[in-house]
User: What shape does this take?
Amino acid sequence: MTIAMTTSPEALTACCTPTGEPAMSEETASSLAAQFKAIADPNRLRMVSIISSSENAEACVCDITEPLNLGQSTVSHHLKILVDAGVLTREKRGVWAYYSLVPGALDSLAGALTGRS
Amino acid sequence: MTIAMTTSPEALTACCTPTGEPAMSEETASSLAAQFKAIADPNRLRMVSIISSSENAEACVCDITEPLNLGQSTVSHHLKILVDAGVLTREKRGVWAYYSLVPGALDSLAGALTGRS
Assistant: This one.
């Protein structure tokens, strides 16, 4: 009786059968990674959470500064990263800048994770 | 007739009404940020994509090394980051290490983005 050993030559090559599925393209991966990098920060995640749970899904800097107990320049710095990454939009009204979610941006990132994009 | 100016004292305070919603906790934000940081890299996103589209949603290092055209030590380095972050599990079988998705890990990250977690 022959017992197949996991270290037989067959076993050594068996795992390398191509799946036939192309890997995610470099362009898609770079673009997604840039957006994930923007939200991969505790303060920025909390900012997005505050904005998405606010009325009309928008908030001004002061709505965000207070609950996070951060200085306004720190908050503005983080918000700029989220705007540059296409996660938030910024609209100046009077003396205040209001931030809101880019429609579909978070759903699109979520879809990339679950394969439902 | 009085015209309300956007720079009136009322306008200056109007945006700062608390939403009543607590911000995401620091602990939750830190833990999520660590996982997002792990996937916020083009190569690691492509690795996760290869594994999730493979048969049985598992792949060995060589399944990943070839399509990405990366050295095995680079691939192993990236895979370790994903394992440490709780995104992948690693199982040694014979001479090969197989990597698979931690059940629910990506869905849970996606849910954090869409508020459906």
Summary: Strands of chain B lie at 58-60, 88-93, 96-101. DSSP finds six helices and three strands in chain B.
